[in-house]
Amino acid sequence: MNKTVYFPKDFLWGGAVAANQCEGAILEDGKGYSTADALTEGVFEKPLIPPAGFSLKEKAVDCYHRYKEDIALFAEMGFKVFRMSIAWSRIFPKGDEQEPNEAGLKFYDDVFDELLKYGIQPLVTLSHYEMPLYLATEYGGWTNRKMIDFFLHYAETVFRRYKDKVKMWLTFNEINMMLHAPFNGGGINQKAEEMDQTELYQAIHYQLVASAVVTKLGHEIDPDMKVGCMIAGSPHYPLTCEPSDVLEALKKDRQSLFFADVHCRGDYPGYMKRFFRENDIHLVITDEDREALKNTVDFISISYYMSYCATADEEKNILSQGNIMSAVKNPYLEESEWGWQIDPQGLRYILNQYYDRYQLPIFIVENGLGAKDTLVKENDTYTVKDSYRIDYLRKHLLQVSEAIQDGVEVLGYTAWGCIDLIANTSAAISKRYGMIYVDRNDDGSGTLNRYKKESFYWYKNVIETNGESLK
């Protein structure tokens, strides 16, 4: 490997969170229930119901009340950018109102002002695995075309409100995960395998149109605004060099690339049109929809945690556990304690894959290691000796440097869960990603005090040296 470590001078170093995993205050100051609030124990109920009884998400890690303390810690680490999301139901509690909730708008004004005070640029996701629960229960979530107008109204409200404070936006978090988790991604109260394929892809189509319409709107409101898509990036390698395995890997990759193709090229690719024909999937696509899709994004953002393998041989389909989906294990890779395979070179691979395909800037907005951390007392203070996290992040960042030297335009890197978060699906905190430890446990006990892990100081040095310390 080339020993040179290189990151551009304007590289955006930072961290990432999601509103529903950190804010808490789920009904405070006029906020309504969100779909994420209803997903309290890793499952959703039929019919959907708001949370009853104890859930860690009710308070989460209390960023709603402690954001100033947290942002000060981010500034101490040297963050240039902070990826966060707006809780849609904090702005429109039910989702179909005409007038927004001013208290919700004011909260994010205050958060953005605090970030800008430290010179930290906000990178904001409009819908990060949550939407007003009412839109799911009363409208069927994204199975309903009316969702496009609801989302557009929400986006216009926050674009106009924050246009002088936020210059970089993402529309939907990991939009391709609608294929695997329709409730998470689209407020659809069914499992993917239970859904009619036409209904599932019609919902996906509505989101793609909504994303494109919102991209156009952002550019109209502020020509300097940059709007990107967000894809869950998990490249597939053929398990063997047998041609059918290579084609199977191509097929698996296209399940995600399809979403980026539409966002970046403005139309459905030919392989998806064939897929629709051969699977008797008939979408309602209007001329207005086709015109809207031509409003392509300014950049691509991706999450990256692991790679997968693919094979056409069913007998070799040994599954490797992932966040929402699973795929074939790679026999050459180690695994985390949660069974996620660790593949730093896969990050370089997917950055090159996407850049070769689209020639658009790429932002790595999620990457990190979930682990069970142990808080220890050292020199009259508390810390976590998380050398395993440092090793993981270092190896991945070295591959980002390699991709940049390959010619890939990488805008920045935001480590996922820079402060410990409540898991979106399991609503637990024992699987930690942060460089800041939050004293809270799965049973709700703890002080919520913040403590700097060893990775905090390591990442601070990485940012200070613009990656030179990675050598």
UniProtKB/TrEMBL annotation:
Q: What are this entry's molecular-function GO terms?
A: 6-phospho-beta-glucosidase activity
Q: Which family does it belong to?
A: Belongs to the glycosyl hydrolase 1 family.
EC main group: hydrolase
Asked whether the keyword Hydrolase is assigned, the reply is: yes
- Provenance organism: Faecalicatena faecalis
Give any Pfam family that matches: Glyco_hydro_1
Catalytic residues in the record: E366
- Entry's PROSITE patterns? GLYCOSYL_HYDROL_F1_1, GLYCOSYL_HYDROL_F1_2
Which InterPro entries does the entry link to? GH_1_N_CS, Glyco_hydro_1, Glyco_hydro_1_AS
Protein name as it appears in the record: 6-phospho-beta-glucosidase
Q: Which PANTHER family match?
A: 6-PHOSPHO-BETA-GLUCOSIDASE ASCB-RELATED, GLYCOSYL HYDROLASE
Keyword tRNA processing part of the UniProt annotation: no
Which keywords does this Swiss-Prot/TrEMBL entry list? Glycosidase, Hydrolase
Q: What is its EC number?
A: 3.2.1.86
